């Protein structure tokens, strides 16, 4: 019987150029060859070779790929999004590694750092030789980073930083941390080598989601850094929020990748799983599930590509990014749950990727702005009322 790839139904990729298709193809091949054969083991054991993967991702140009200069590839935003889509089809943890490295840590240095800091760190981070993390969220201040209690006090020509950060991806393997702290002049950012005395990172264990990703608590105890570590271009809370918008953009595409992998896996399973003298793919209810999933997936993909075009024109707004994450992550979770139901009991095992994607997406729904906060951002755009203030 003739079959179509889900994206063929609406010719989703019709306007991609040759370079974008090539970047997507290279990333997909890497994920198929390197990640998918190993991800179930990494997820189950929580042992993932982050440093090895970072060097491999650097070799194919995916780290900080949308930044210019300093060894970065300088691709357009849509190409970066497509790479995120393929990475998250492998696992959300892999996309998080790339996202935190490029869109948070490297972007912060690129946008706000001194020339000395850029030259010191960005080339090493682009190759994966050095790994970065981004310390903004605190245990008691997630959705409201303005309430942070980590402080940086000026003492002579140095700064003394005290406090802690929570849920920090790559925190325990990072070579450099971007640390946001409250000062007498407002929120400021610092580029801190993790070898600095007073810096420590504690691995967070017992996670039931994003198990193939390293997550840590960062602790700063009278950590002294020179003023040269400060990011001079970061003069308010707007700086870290701008970094978060960069990361959220990648999630818009990444969620589509996870959802696509769930749909493809359930389609393949249903074509070979037989009940009542035939494959379950021939049953009407199963086909209705596929129709709903494919429609939701194509809608999310088209939204991602639309926002990619707007970002490539340098016109994208925070409200648009919020709507993209709000729609696409929720849609991906719905697809994962529906796909799992097609596999029945087999769907909860690591033999298939669906339940792993589903549990990962529950974290994606929360990080880089919770689903509820993005709803309120959209609500404010529509009503002019900031309900969260």
Characterization of this structure:
- The protein is α+β, with helices and mostly antiparallel strands.
- It has three domains: 6-127, Acyl-CoA dehydrogenase/oxidase, N-terminal domain (Butyryl-Coa Dehydrogenase, subunit A, domain 1, Orthogonal Bundle); 132-229, Beta Barrel (Butyryl-CoA Dehydrogenase, subunit A, domain 2), CATH 2.40.110; 238-383, Butyryl-CoA Dehydrogenase, subunit A, domain 3, CATH 1.20.140.
- It has helices spanning 18-35, 39-45, 50-59, 77-90, 92-112, 115-127, 238-272, 284-312, 318-343, 354-364, 371-383, and strands at residues 132-135, 151-155, 158-169, 176-183, 186-193, 199-203, 215-226.
- A four-stranded antiparallel β-sheet has the order 2-3-7-6, with helices on one face. A three-stranded mixed β-sheet has the order 1-4-5, covered by helices on one side.
- A hairpin with a 2-residue loop joins strand 2 (151-155) and strand 3 (158-169).
- The termini are far apart.
- 49% of the residues are buried.
- One of its GO terms (biological process) is fatty acid beta-oxidation using acyl-CoA dehydrogenase.
- Belongs to the acyl-CoA dehydrogenase family.
- Pfam families: Acyl-CoA_dh_1, Acyl-CoA_dh_M, Acyl-CoA_dh_N.
- Its cofactor is FAD.
- GO terms for molecular function: fatty-acyl-CoA binding; flavin adenine dinucleotide binding; glutaryl-CoA dehydrogenase activity.
